[in-house]
């Protein structure tokens, strides 16, 4: 099963943490830090897989993808296929991209609750639920439509900009 | 995803995604200020301020619901950054009760992130979840299922179970899917509570919706893992589902990157691998569909490769079938060769190496073809890939290549900093060294492999000493002490003296791990003077140096002083006079005043020992008795007569502690044990003084304390025993020492020093190319590999040393699966004759390498039962290694080739005279069924060589000419490879 999904930026700041086995906050921070330490030590053009026995326990591995300023990290055990997990990251990123139209780190910072919604449609209780970004998007839009109908919307002002993402 | 690029990009969320319930200005400001924070401390300050304000505001009486939602989201954010937000948990729980979908979902999200499944607040949520599972709005149901998945624990499962089971028949497929998965989660939590519902999973396998069917595979996978046999009936269904999926019978929506439902395929393949494992009948159903997938699956996309990899895993797990095995091998080689085609080749290489690891279990020959690819991976900058490759090598280790592999592992171990993996690889090295050391049964092999073990251990110790278990050190000592376990005293003493030699050399190194020092001290004490090469005073001097150089460590000191004691004892026993060196005397003086009672004890023991006469000393410290069993007489019954005498002389009889007052017992040294337990009765100021020192090995101290006091008694038997006991290493943590020290093993380095293939070889190999005819090898090899290595062959820069490494790693892999127990029985005898030749090497250096070269043929012969073809290539590695490492390749290699040929002639003759009939017949019988099923090229290759077997003259001649042609042993490769592959 998938143990955790971690999205963090290249400075090691967590942008989304989802552990499918409960971890107390301090432990989450510690794990994130060790994952970041491993990832930041890896050169470019090497494989996307890392064995993480030392961090998450024996038999665990992680697959990561480095996109722009973000690391997308999936941690899983021996029941999953590494290449397939790599594609699952692809599904997540594709969905985010469709959802936010040219997704960037800032979108994820401000909408991490939406990101959770998307992730919940893709992974359920540590198992792969859906791999078609189209269907995920449809489900998420359905949710937002129903949510909107029951509440008014307050938009984030367009003008906000600046150096974020550290 | 190149669109994901800017960080400072204009944020335009309002226009996106059909309007999300965005966050307020405050949240925005918070995120912004955190983003602008210059340091971690500043960020923490901002968040703490935020948390303070949230704490204040969230507790206000009438917070609007929408406002509350935002607070909760901010809390989640704060907690993600590592700050405690527990004061808000209850508000998140309250929010789940809200009617609004948006608020309810936020509430559920917050609680699933905040709470563990045994949190006290869970009980407040169960009721809500129950209610929501019955909701008409399927989105609410989904949210509740998600929450249930995360929060419901063993005790609360029964509360929601009926609702979840009802949902299995929900009209919406999304809900059915999630219900199946929630049920699966419950099963994972507590299999017992849902055991009566397992049939539901089987039922859902036939769901109309492929998504639901796919979801069912997860619980079924778990169930099958737990109990394969009760699901054998499903093999046919799974196969037919897989077939339909692979034939694109599913709706287009399930395609992913032009692959039909790859995740479902992967899961099905995993399940089939479980079901087919070791089951010929079940596997029979699977072969066809596997063949189909191998054929159809395109390897250009990532996901296609994922499916292919899963097929290979499946093939390696089910009952072997030649045809699918071939297909799997072909896919594997595609992975490994992908390096040339794709940019993300590392991933494929990684998968390829892993696939290879799985396949060699069934057919070790497959690895042969990929020698160079494997070696490339070994030298790759990617750590993950390297580790995977080491795993592969670990799996294919055998007696012929163990040295090369362990050498490599040690090199890698030295180079990394990751302690976890360092420990792992160190223990693997030790394991391999131990495993391959005592397994062989004749003398030369013993000494070689034991020396090898020994060298390996030394290296492992030097670089990972502090990470290793003390047990490993004890094993090493035992190895040296027990030697080969048989009556080969000569070999034993040779090993020991070589141990002493190299340890004396190593002692010159500035910093050594304490565990390693302990071993060194122990060995020097036991065997330092055993072969008469070194004088006692020399060894004692060295041991004194150890204590000086490592002032801080009491354990090492203890080992050292004990070793000195042993040497003195041996000297006295031998009737020689022990003159005390001044530094030794000062060491004894220092230790007798030591804070550590253990050290004091040992120092006094030594002093007492020096006063005894030689006979007493001999029984106290018998020579080389470290392996004798010790029986401790706890009742001290041997003292009875002494006690009797004393009482008769008017001494007071012993009264048990219970009958004594506390004051009295203080004077009694025997109360050491009780001292701990009843310390409150013993707290007297005067007694307090010697206590403060931290003593690591309290129990030992008390044991040995007794012995000192007993010295004057001169009851020899007892004394011996106890000294033996005190000789045993006191257990204590190895304290700090440094890695990265280099061994200077001088002569040893030739064979055992770091091979440094990558660095040093570039210069040597180029010269070798011209002189030694290595280029020749290149040509022949690439020819023989035919099309597979075309590309490689053309690149003339495929370096010679890589080839050599390949040869040493894979040299004998061809025949591993044809192990002949019948011939193993016979061959050793033939070899022992040659083995016991007079010139038994004493030192580890060149002679041993010679020996190794000479002795490596036997294991091959054992392994293969087809002598000629494989013998020579397996000799090669070592010789090549020799040529590669040795500073002067010319003479040493010449020397080698002479010894080997000398050695081998009788060897082979002896072999041929008695093996051919049995071996050839057994081979053909073994090969029989493989031949019938499949005209495998590997097998075909072996046939001529078998025929050649009984004709020793021919092949020997060929061998001889080969040696004439090339001065170095590498020169004979061409001919032999032609034999092997042509």
Automatic annotation (TrEMBL), chain A:
Keywords: Cytoplasmic vesicle, Golgi apparatus, Membrane, Protein transport, Transport. One of its GO terms (cellular component) is cytoplasmic vesicle membrane. Residues 1-145 form the AP complex mu/sigma subunit domain. It is found in: Cytoplasmic vesicle membrane; Golgi apparatus. CDD domains: AP3_sigma. One of its GO terms (biological process) is Golgi to vacuole transport. Pfam families: Clat_adaptor_s. It is a peripheral membrane protein. The keyword Mitochondrion does not apply. The keyword Protein transport applies. Belongs to the adaptor complexes small subunit family. This is AP complex subunit sigma. It comes from Musa balbisiana.
From TrEMBL, chain B:
Transmembrane segments: none annotated. The keyword Membrane applies. InterPro entries: Adaptor_Complx_Large_Subunit (IPR050840), AP4_complex_esu (IPR017109), ARM-like (IPR011989), ARM-type_fold (IPR016024), Clathrin/coatomer_adapt-like_N (IPR002553). It holds the Pfam family Adaptin_N. Residues 63-610 form the Clathrin/coatomer adaptor adaptin-like N-terminal domain. It is found in: Endomembrane system. GO terms for cellular component: AP-4 adaptor complex; endomembrane system. Residues 751-901, 935-982 are annotated as: Disordered. Keywords: Golgi apparatus, Membrane, Protein transport, Transport. Belongs to the adaptor complexes large subunit family. This is AP-4 complex subunit epsilon. The lineage of its organism: Eukaryota, Viridiplantae, Streptophyta, Embryophyta, Tracheophyta.
């Amino acid at each position: 099963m998938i143990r955790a999904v971690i999205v963090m930026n290249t400075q090691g700041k967590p942008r989304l943490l989802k552990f499918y086995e409960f971890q107390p906050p301090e432990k989450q921070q510690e794990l994130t830090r060790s994952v970041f330490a491993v990832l930041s030590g890896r050169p470019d053009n090497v494989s996307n897989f890392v064995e993480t026995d030392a961090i998450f326990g024996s038999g665990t591995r992680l697959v990561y993808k480095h996109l722009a300023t973000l690391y997308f990290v999936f941690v899983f055990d021996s029941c999953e296929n590494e290449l397939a997990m790599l594609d699952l990251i692809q599904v997540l990123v594709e969905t985010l991209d469709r959802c936010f139209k040219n997704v960037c780190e800032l979108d994820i910072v401000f909408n991490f609750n939406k990101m959770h919604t998307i992730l919940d449609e893709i992974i359920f209780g540590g198992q792969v639920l859906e791999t078609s970004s189209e269907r995920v998007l449809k489900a998420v839009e359905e949710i937002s439509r129903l949510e909107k109908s029951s509440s008014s919307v307050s938009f984030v002002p367009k003008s906000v900009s600046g150096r974020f993402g550290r | 995803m190149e669109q994901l690029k800017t960080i400072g990009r204009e944020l335009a969320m309002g226009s996106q995604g059909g309007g999300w319930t965005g966050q307020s200005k405050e949240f925005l400001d918070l995120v912004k200020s955190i983003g602008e924070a210059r340091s971690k401390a500043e960020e923490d300050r901002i968040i703490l301020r935020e948390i303070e304000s949230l704490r204040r505001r969230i507790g206000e009486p009438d917070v609007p619901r929408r406002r509350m939602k935002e607070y909760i989201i901010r809390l989640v954010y704060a907690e993600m950054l590592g700050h405690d937000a527990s004061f808000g948990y209850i508000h998140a729980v309250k929010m789940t009760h809200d009617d609004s979908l948006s608020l309810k979902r936020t509430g559920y999200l917050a609680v699933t992130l905040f709470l563990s499944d045994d949190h006290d607040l869970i009980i407040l949520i169960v009721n809500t979840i129950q209610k929501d599972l019955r909701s008409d709005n399927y989105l609410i149901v989904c949210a509740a299922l998600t929450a249930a998945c995360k929060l419901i624990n063993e005790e609360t499962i029964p509360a929601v179970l009926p609702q979840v089971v009802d949902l299995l028949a929900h009209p919406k497929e999304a809900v059915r899917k999630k219900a199946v998965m929630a049920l699966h989660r419950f099963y994972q939590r507590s299999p017992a509570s849902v055991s009566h519902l397992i049939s539901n999973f089987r039922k859902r396998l036939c769901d109309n919706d492929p998504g639901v069917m796919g979801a069912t595979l997860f619980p079924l996978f778990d169930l099958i893992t737990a109990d394969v046999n009760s699901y054998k009936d499903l093999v046919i269904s799974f196969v037919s589902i897989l077939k339909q999926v692979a034939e694109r019978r599913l709706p287009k929506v399930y395609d992913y990157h032009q692959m039909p439902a790859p995740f479902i395929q992967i899961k099905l393949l995993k399940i089939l691998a479980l079901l087919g494992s070791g089951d010929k009948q079940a596997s029979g159903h699977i072969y066809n569909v596997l063949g189909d997938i191998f054929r159809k699956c395109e390897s250009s996309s990532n996901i296609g490769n994922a499916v292919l990899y899963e097929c290979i895993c499946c093939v390696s797990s089910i009952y072997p079938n030649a045809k699918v095995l071939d297909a799997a091998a072909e896919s594997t080689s595609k992975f490994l060769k992908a390096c040339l085609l794709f940019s993300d080749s590392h991933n494929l290489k990684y998968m390829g190496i892993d696939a290879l690891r799985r396949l060699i279990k069934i057919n070790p020959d497959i690895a042969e073809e990929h020698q160079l690819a494997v070696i490339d991976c070994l030298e790759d900058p990617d750590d993950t890939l390297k580790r995977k490759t080491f795993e592969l090598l670990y799996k294919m280790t055998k007696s012929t290549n163990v040295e090369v592999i362990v050498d490599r592992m040690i090199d890698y171990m030295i180079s990394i900093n990751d302690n976890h993996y360092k420990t792992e690889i160190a223990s693997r090295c030790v394991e391999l060294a131990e495993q391959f050391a005592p397994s062989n049964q004749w003398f030369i092999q013993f000494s070689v492999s034991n020396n090898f073990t020994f060298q390996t251990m030394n290296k492992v110790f030097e670089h990972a000493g502090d990470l290793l278990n003390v047990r490993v050190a004890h094993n090493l000592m035992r190895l040296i002490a027990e030697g080969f376990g048989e009556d080969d005293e000569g070999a034993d003493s040779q090993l020991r003296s070589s141990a002493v030699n190299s340890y004396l050399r190593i002692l010159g190194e500035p910093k050594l791990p304490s565990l390693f020092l302990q071993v060194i001290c122990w060995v020097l004490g036991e065997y330092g003077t055993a072969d008469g090469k070194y004088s006692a005073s020399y060894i004692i001097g060295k041991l004194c140096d150890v204590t000086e150089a490592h002032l801080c460590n009491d354990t090492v000191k203890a080992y050292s002083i004990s070793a000195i004691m042993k040497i003195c004892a041996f000297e006295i026993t031998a009737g020689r006079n022990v003159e005390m060196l001044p530094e030794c005397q000062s060491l004894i003086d220092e230790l007798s005043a030591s804070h550590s009672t253990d050290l004091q004890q040992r120092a006094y023991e030594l002093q007492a020992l020096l006063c005894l006469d030689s006979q007493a000393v001999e029984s106290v410290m018998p020579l080389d008795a470290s392996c004798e069993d010790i029986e401790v007489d706890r009742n001290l019954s041997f003292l009875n007569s002494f006690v009797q005498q004393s009482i008769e002389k008017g001494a007071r009889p012993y009264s048990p502690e219970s009958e004594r007052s506390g004051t009295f017992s203080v004077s009694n040294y025997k109360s050491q044990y009780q001292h701990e337990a009843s310390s409150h009765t013993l707290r007297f100021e005067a007694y307090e003084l010697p206590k403060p020192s931290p003593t690591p090995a309290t129990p030992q101290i008390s044991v040995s304390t007794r012995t000192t006091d007993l010295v004057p008694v001169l009851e020899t038997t007892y004394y011996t025993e106890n000294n033996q006991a005190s000789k045993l290493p006191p257990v204590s943590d190895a304290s700090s020492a440094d890695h990265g020290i280099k061994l200077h093993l001088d002569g040893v380095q030739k064979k055992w020093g770091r091979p440094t293939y990558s660095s040093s070889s570039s210069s040597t190999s180029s010269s070798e190319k011209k002189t030694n005819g290595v280029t020749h090898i290149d040509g022949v090899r690439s020819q023989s590999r035919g099309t597979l290595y075309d590309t490689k062959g053309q690149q003339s820069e495929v370096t010679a040393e890589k080839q050599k490494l390949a040869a040493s790693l894979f040299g004998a892999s061809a025949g591993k699966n044809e192990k002949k127990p019948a011939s193993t029985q016979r061959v050793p005898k033939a070899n022992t004759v040659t083995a016991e030749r007079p010139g038994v090497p004493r030192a580890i250096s060149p002679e041993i390498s010679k020996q190794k070269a000479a002795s490596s043929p036997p294991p091959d012969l054992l392994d293969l039962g087809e002598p000629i073809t494989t013998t020579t290539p397996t000799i090669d590695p070592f010789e090549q290694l020799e040529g590669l490492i040795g500073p002067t390749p010319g003479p040493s290699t010449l020397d080698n080739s002479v010894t080997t040929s000398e050695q081998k002639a009788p060897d082979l003759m002896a072999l041929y005279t008695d093996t051919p009939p049995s071996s050839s017949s057994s081979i053909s019988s073994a090969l029989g069924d493989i031949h019938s099923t499949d005209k495998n090229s590997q097998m075909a290759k072996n046939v001529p060589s078998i025929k050649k077997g009984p004709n020793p003259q021919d092949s020997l001649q060929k061998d001889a000419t080969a040696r004439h042609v090339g001065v170095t042993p590498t020169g004979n490769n061409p001919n032999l490879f032609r034999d092997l592959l042509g």
